[in-house]
Amino acid sequence: MRGSSQRLSPSDTDSTRNCLLPSSEQALIREFMQALTEEIEAIKKGKGGSIITVYDGSFVRREGPFYVYVFTTESPLIVMDDAPAEVEVGGQRFPGQVISVQGSEVAIGIEHDFGGSIVEARLITNLWYLLEALRKRYEEVLNGQRPLDTRLGQRLFGFASATPRLDSGDLNLPPSPCVLNNEQLTAIRAACGSDVHFIWGPPGTGKTQTIGFLIAALLRRNLRVLVVSQTNVATDHAIASAAELLLNTEDYQSGKLVRYGNISPNSKLPEMVIPDKISERLGQHLKEQLAKLQVELGRVQSELTGIREVEMLLSAEKEALRRLGELEARLQRCAQEYKIEKSHARSLAMQLQEDKSKMVEAHAAGKLKRFFLGLDLTKLQAQVRRREYELAVVRRKVAATVSKINDLRVAIDRERAQADRCARKWKAILSQYRLDVATISARIGQLTKRAEKLTAAVRAIEAELEALHTKILREAKVIATSLTKATIAPQIDDQKFDVLVVDEASMAPMPSLYFAAGRATQKAIIVGDFRQLPPIVLAESEMAQKWLGRDIFNQAGIERAVEEQKPEPRLTMLRRQYRMHPEISRISNSIIYGGQLLDCLSRDTLRDIAAFLDKSPFATTPLVLYDVSVTNPWSSRLEQGGRYNLYSAVLSAELARRAANAGIKSIGVISPYTAHTRLIKMMLDESGDATLRHLKVSTVHRFQGLEQEVIIFDIAEGPMPRYGPSGLVNGFELASQAAKLINVAITRPKAQLVLVANMDYLVSRLRRDSILVRVLEQIRQRSTVVDSRKIVNDYFCAEFEHWTRMLDPRDDGINPDDSTLYTERNFYAAFFADLRKSVREIIVVSPFMTVSRTQQFLNLFHSKVAQGIEVRVFTRTLREQQGHMFQQAEMAFEGLKNVGVQVIERRGLHQKFAFIDRRVAWEGSLNILSQSEARSTEHMRRLPFPKTCEELIKLHNFGSDSEVDPGTRRQVQTDRKCEICGSTMVLVRGPHGIFVGCMNYPRCQNRYSIRRGDRIGTDVVCPGRNDVPCGKPMVATRGRFGVYLRCSDQNCKGTRNIRG
Hints:
Strand content: 15-25%
Structural class: alpha/beta
Radius of gyration: 44 Å
Shape: flat
Largest sheet: 7 strands, parallel
CATH class of the largest domain: Alpha Beta
Oligomer: single chain
Helix content: 40-55%
């Protein structure tokens, strides 16, 4: 056992001293923890979570705390079953769990009832939560805080020897109309007689049926069984298969077969395997008692509430009367104040009248009389003003007092009414319960004691019912759950089993499987197919690949024994195939399974398949190949690495639409690449057809374990600068990822496999013995082959630009008058916005080109060329590209040329420009077609000035294609024919100059040099010289400075350089 490279802190080292496991097993667990940690870090680097929009949610059922809804996803969702999630509806987030993902459908349990449907929601998932939970459990094992029985796990993983197979005796299988074949019986007998056994079940060979009978056989041996699978769908199928065999047994009727955890929405399980249903039946008497107690408690609480309301009403009446007394006292004081202020006002008015009379008299008298009468006119005037002011102040006080008196009277009326209302209410309640005020307290005491007794009785029964769920799990003889629940659910922690049965074992992460094996003591029975895909792992580190990127068949040496054709007593293979049309199964049988499978379809199944093929819109044959070779569509990559092929996606979406319109309900569309399936899904969603929106569109990985009547398998590969076919489809060994992916893909259909592929490209780029080429050749020989142009007749599809934008959206909201300085961080978004608005001409001047940057422009350039827009790229000559940049430029040249872009080479070119419709110019220091993501010092300025554009184009001669070279849109053709393939010979640019080569070069390697004295006729017309036109053909010849073109007419001295 190799030790972990992960270093432990001193505290970790100290804590492991408490662990009772041997050091080798501790080292194994540390490796598991390191692999989980590295995968968690890889997930977090990719933002650690996922937020996608989901549509058309329909309510399925209530399950525990969850309301289960099935949604259609906008893009493929990669998340484990039972992962925690949040669902955002109307701006609010609600907790939930992902129950299952099947193609483009996701079932989500939400802790909120939204009724029958949810039009649209956002699903927020944490992709590393479950891995972290498992890592913490292993940490607790090392710390001595959690026990783990590793004996069975050690034997399962091949670290300890499994005991020899024993005679299992009579299987004692339950009666059933289903008849098991010899291999199924052998597998069950071997599993019952072994402590570790592997059942190899290729697609359609009856794994689920075998598991059902196996569980029954183990149950009848008084063994307690834990059944797990990586998905809830497979878990449901396994327990349903066993329950159907045992419907009439006491074990089933008494709830001894239990499906624990989230049930997938389309599963139809027998009732007595569902804990809630078992609880309902077993707890029926308790529920009846509970209902009676709750009715009586409700009556007591109602009376108690009413009488306590009397207390509140009496208190409220008392308070109202108190406030009423205070208000009446205030009213009396205000009335007294009113009388005083009113009297004062009258007195001031009389005094003011006297002062005014004296002032009149003073005005009428002369000075002498005023002197003798003591009438001082000035003093009188001042006194009148003072009296007027004092009178005004007093009158305002009187008015304020009158207002206060009115308010008090209103408040008094209100309080009096409140007191009357309270009195009427409490008298009515006391009359209802035939009580009086004196007996209220005693009655409340009686009722309170009664309510407490009833509440205690209710809680006791509820606890008993709650314990019933625990009791159901504790007394269950078979528990089926997801592998996730089996490892981290607290409800499983205290459970011990005799046998662990694992379905879909090739998909089970080994750290989870090892932990689950610790739940069992006697047997581990592994069912699956190691020729199908292992778990998805993002981390590329050695430890993550070792423990998360392989399956248990590989770890236990089963796969190696099969490949070396050695006898393996731990393995039984199921060999009879019951599901697929024989023409479909023949492919995987001959290539993947070595011809070991037998087709044993029933007459009913064959009849159903024949009926399906009769109505298929594709062909009446089970194999249909839509070959896109003639169109030869270009493949692209998103910046994050996802591959897609626009033409191929349009074709697949159209094929799916035709199948749906023909009334076919069971349709699956699959591809190796997430970006490509997302594109197909968007096309179907945007159709507005609800049927198309609900079609299952998914990656091959997410479709493993599912099946449909017809599968459209879109390989999505095509010419791509720098990149050939990816490792997902390029492999020749049976153990390769490519072989497993292809096997999963071609074994999903029951009646018809529709393949979308670029046959010529794939056959030319892959080894002859590669798995995909072997599959393609078989399909081509035995299928209906259709030229894809009969479905989508033009590579330059009018919608291509739209779908490019949808798949890789950029900001189109740029201000037309913006002349801001941009760096490479924000340049490309703004530049793409300008490109998309072009209607006449695009000129890009970039001295250097790289594949990674150029390929981002190919689809948009392709679309613009299709619209009749001229696209020209000016760059340095190939000869000036040094080292690695030569290969980069050469591949970029090829890619641009294939989509119809004119590439013009100019020696010594150093300017960086772009012109859109000669209305917007971009100028700066950034190489548009080679800028690295890592650099951050270059800049470009946007110049939205038409006159400036014209001046720059004229100044640098970017407006005319006056130079001839092999990098332009049209190759220079010669008058020679290829001796090998008969094609026209052309001038080809190589790293050491121009030579004559086959137009199919480098696929056809026929080539030769141009020597001094050679005159190779070309299709280039001489423009003449000194303003004298010529029009004669030109010939290629070698001069002092290399190959150039000269006029074939000896009297004309016209020459042209071939830049290189």
